[in-house]
Amino acid sequence: MSPLRRLLGQIGLGFSILVIVSPSILFFLWMLSLSTKYEIDNASYPPVFIPEHFNWGNYAAVLSSNRFSTYFLNSLIVTGAATAFALLVGVPAGYGMARMRAQKSAIVILIARITPGLSYLIPLFLLFQWLGLLGTLWPQIIIHLVVTVPIVIWIMIGYFETTPMELEESALIDGASRWQIFHYVALPIARPGIAVAFILSVIFSWNNFVFGIVLAGRETRTLPVAVYNMISFDQLSWGPLAAAALIVTLPVLLLTVFAQRQIVAGLTAGAVKGG
Amino acid sequence: MSEATATAPASSRSDADPRELRGWEPPSYWPFIAPALVVVLGVIIFPWLYTTWMSLHEWKVGSPPTFVGLANYIRLPSDTRFVESIGHTLVYAALSVVLPLIFGTFAAVVFHTKFPMRGFLRGIFIMPMMATPVAIALVWTMMFHPQLGILNYLLSLVGIPAQLWVFHPATVIPSLVLVETWQWSPLVMLIVLGGLAAIPTEPYESAQIDGATRWQIFRYISLPLVMPFLFIAGMIRGIDALKSFDIIFAITQGGPGTASETINLYLYSTAFVYYDVGYASAIVVVFFALIVVLTGALLQLRQTTHWNDTGGSA
């Protein structure tokens, strides 16, 4: 290849990278910019990109509002409980289904994957109403299982199918019970898979909006619902709104950057198997 | 918990053909599955059965249900708002499959080459898909603002007149698809990248020796070999686009008017604004059937293309 053609190729590659990555970079930088400006800068045209005076007060206003800590705690409880419970029942289930080669039972997981979240809401909403649970966090914790349990089972089936059977077989011959084998042989090997399931479960539960918008009351809102409700009250204060949006999604963005390998592994495994 | 199960048979089946074992299920693993089964029955199977039952009833929240047979289903075809929402959903979904497929495949080809900071930049690229949808929807809403939005400013830099984006019935769906494409191209990229990684290097080497251009290599080597992965990506994208909710709800709530009201949005209004749960349940059943039929059609298409084109396996 001639040097000129090589150089042109390099420039083409650089340009392609720019085209691909800039929509994401520019969006999040703009989000950051909106969240650090005074309203006068946010409402000016042409837009101000880097303000002369930063207004970190937008963040202070969001963080210090007395409801924020409630909503943050709600999000933490709902996501934490739904993920913990999903791991508790989903990891053994993934193991059992992988060892039984119960492909057909995995179809239920597929159905869960293609069903719109709203369709679970109508019957479960009526059920929670009937049980008198609507003022509490329980309805949201329970309905988040619709998201977290299939993710965990799906990823763990895939993971246990690839772990070697030899160790488990020799343990079986040595007289270990199935439960002991699971606990002492299979589980330690599967730790990376559990990490993947944990991360994805946390992210998709944290991000969930549709369940909260129906089931959450004033006291039981999770962060995505709380942020959405900010719009109706402060139509034009973009600064605090952008700051709140960034605060809500920041934990997920950090996870994405620091656990990228696990996320990529989990998503592609789930996706490719999903076909 | 289950000492007795240690005597279960057949520990050497790890390398057996799974097809031979279909239908054969040793009982010993059931204790592992049972708790999850209870959960799945409770939060997935029960809602399905209950929804089907409700769809046969005239039922508004607060009043007792009365059995009406298939009346809710019969009402659907003459409900213009429902019929229109099907059209919106199909247009929205079709665009939301095609555009991310193109952009995502392009990104996969680029990320398949080696360059500095590739891992970091890939992390940046997948951020839109992981970020909280409501949070990014709020920022997009600000960007779409006709007077103060950054998008119209960017357009003005290249001499394109200001648009109304999500505030006009004619442009609302394309604008939402723009967000959807921005958000979900990364998933297509990851799937196709996985496909590209699985291709052996020999065809590329001989093509380069033969002096093939970049485009030729992509068109005649990479593309046919990643076709199965593109189908998977397209199918997942199709399912997700059909049931898309957060972005549309947070940005337009189905508006202006009902111009961006998809089936899912109409379902939301019917169930949780009008509290007509019987009718909403009928919509759920039809909606689900539509998703299954479209997914099945795509699978069918995949199988035929499979045999004609590549003969490879996904």
Structure description:
The complex is a heterodimer of chains A (275) and B (314). By secondary structure, chain A is mainly α. Chain A has one domain: MetI-like (MetI-like fold). Chain A is 80% helix and 0% strand. Chain A is built from 14 helices and no strands. Chain A has helices at 3-35, 39-42, 57-64, 66-100, 106-114, 117-131, 138-162, 166-173, 178-189, 191-207, 210-215, 223-233, 238-258, 260-274. Chain B has 314 residues and is mainly α. Chain B has one domain (73-310): MetI-like (MetI-like fold, Orthogonal Bundle), CATH 1.10.3720. Helices cover 67% and strands 1% of the residues of chain B. Chain B contains 12 helices and 2 strands, in the order H-E-E-H-H-H-H-H-H-H-H-H-H-H. Chain B has helices at 30-54, 71-75, 80-112, 118-130, 133-144, 150-157, 172-197, 202-209, 214-242, 246-251, 263-272, 277-310, and strands spanning 57-58, 66-67. Chain B has a two-stranded antiparallel sheet with strand order 1-2. The model of chain B is unreliable at 1-16 and 307-314 (pLDDT under 50). The chains are: A mainly alpha (275), B mainly alpha (314).
